[in-house]
Specification:
The protein is α/β, with parallel strands linked by helices and about 375 residues long. The protein folds into two domains: about 10-155 and about 310-360, Response regulator (Rossmann fold), CATH 3.40.50.2300; about 160-280. The protein contains twelve helices and 16 strands. It has helices spanning about 20-25, 35-45, 65-80, 100-105, 120-125, 160-165, 180-190, 210-215, 220-235, 255-270, 305-310, 325-340, and strands at about 10, 55, 90-95, 110-115, 135-140, 150, 175, 200-205, 250-255, 275-280, 300-305, 345, 350-355, 360, 365-370, 370-375. It has a seven-stranded mixed sheet. The chain has a six-stranded mixed sheet with strand order 1-3-2-4-5-6, covered by helices on one side. Strand 13 (about 350-355) and strand 14 (about 360) form a beta hairpin. Helix 8 (about 210-215) crosses helix 10. The longest helix is centred in the C-terminal third of the chain and has 19 residues, at about 325-340. The protein is globular. About 35% of the residues are buried.
């Protein structure tokens, strides 16, 4: 019996470029596309499939791997529709890990190895011995592997990109997140190289009342308690305007598009109009009809182009994907083009470039004012 079973899909499309290529003519959703959408089409259509590519993956219960692979296929067919070189992409499912290392070393061309779970010791040992023909993609947290070219969205240093803005007060801000793992990354990547005390980091619960959580963070609830105690003491009703913490001028939020659209109104509900709000990527999904630019009025941040700009990539139900599914799809799409195009490729997630063996991404800068969105290159 074979020690492994491989599922190999050869994607072969025979088509010719045409002046009426539907992928180009239907790329824009809007009749008057913005500069970013035009830049995306220019960069994507300029990419070329220069290498045969083998993608190694293992199935999981989530849709992360599924959407990542769909993005790769979409990028491949997009290039084929333009009459680019006829290179192959193979998909090879990892069934038996004991033969995994030999299998990937025997394959030709460039290789993408994608995981959505923590590495086991066998895989880690194998991956640490690979060369520059291999691209390691991890869709969750992972250990740093010094000898492997890798990309991980969760390990991207977006915080430094954000707070390096000349208008950002680095000495006077707090960090709000829905993920406890963000705290270590926050301290590790803090730009001015000093540790932040625990009271500068606040965890929010997406299932609880945001107004109460924000009031607690900014100590507004203490003002209300003092008001109740004083009313009880004097026996009369009094009016007190809560005073927020004076040591905070900027708030950095790392959450998700559905939570971000609720946090900002919660801040306004608590009369915190003087606090500058900065959001990390995946805070606004223009494809989602339930969110509005008005929800984020007065905020700044970084965001992935694919979440801000509606474009047609050939997936008929792309608008129904969650923001996380769109991001995983976009990572697969962009990685294929980046492998072939190299540094400065501008794609669905932003500008791609090498930082040592790590692949880094620069998303767009985005701001919201008077119900309108303004986006520009970072």
């Amino acid at each position: 019996m074979k020690t492994s079973i491989s599922v190999i899909i050869l994607l072969i499309l025979t088509c010719c470029a045409s002046t009426s290529n539907s992928r180009l003519t239907n790329f824009y959703f809007d009749e008057s596309p913005n500069k970013i959408s035009k830049s995306l089409l220019k960069s994507i259509s300029a990419s070329s499939q220069r290498h045969d590519l083998t993608v190694f993956y293992s199935k999981d219960d989530s849709k992360r791997i599924e959407k990542f692979l769909e993005g790769i296929k979409s990028a491949y067919f997009f290039q084929k529709s333009l009459g680019k070189e006829k290179k192959l992409i193979k998909f090879n499912e990892i069934i038996k890990k004991d033969s995994f290392c030999n299998k990937i070393k025997l394959s030709d061309g460039k290789k993408i190895i994608v995981y959505s779970k923590n590495l086991d010791s066998l895989s880690e040992k194998c991956l640490s011995s690979l060369n520059s023909d291999y691209y390691f993609v991890f869709l969750d947290e992972h250990k740093y592997l010094s000898n492997v070219i890798s990309i991980n969205l969760k390990n991207q240093n977006y915080l430094n990109q954000l707070i390096s803005n000349e208008d950002f007060d680095q000495s006077n801000f707090i960090f709000i997140s829905k993920d406890t793992l963000e705290f270590d990354k926050f301290n590790k990547n803090y730009l001015i190289n000093k540790k932040i005390s625990d009271d500068s980091f606040f965890l929010i619960d997406g299932f609880k009342n945001f107004e109460n959580q924000i009031a607690s963070i900014f100590e507004l609830s203490l003002s209300q308690k003092r008001k109740r105690d004083l009313q009880k003491e004097i026996g009369n009703e009094i009016k007190i305007t809560p005073r927020a913490r004076k040591d905070i001028s900027n708030v950095v939020i790392s959450s998700s598009s559905d939570i971000a659209s609720r946090i900002v109104p919660a801040l306004k509900y608590n009369l915190l109009f003087d606090v500058e709000i900065y959001n990390l990527p995946n805070h606004f999904d223009a494809w989602n009809p339930a969110v509005s630019e008005k929800d984020l009025d007065g905020t700044f941040g970084l965001e992935y182009p694919i979440l801000l700009n509606k474009i047609n990539l050939g997936s008929s139900n792309f608008e129904t994907y969650s923001s996380e599914e769109k991001i995983n799809y976009a990572l697969g799409f962009d990685l294929v083009n980046f492998i072939n195009n190299g540094n400065d490729y501008f794609g669905l997630l932003g500008e791609f470039f090498f930082q040592g063996n790590n692949i880094e991404i620069k998303p767009l800068q985005v701001s919201f004012k008077d119900g309108e969105m303004n986006q520009k290159l970072n």
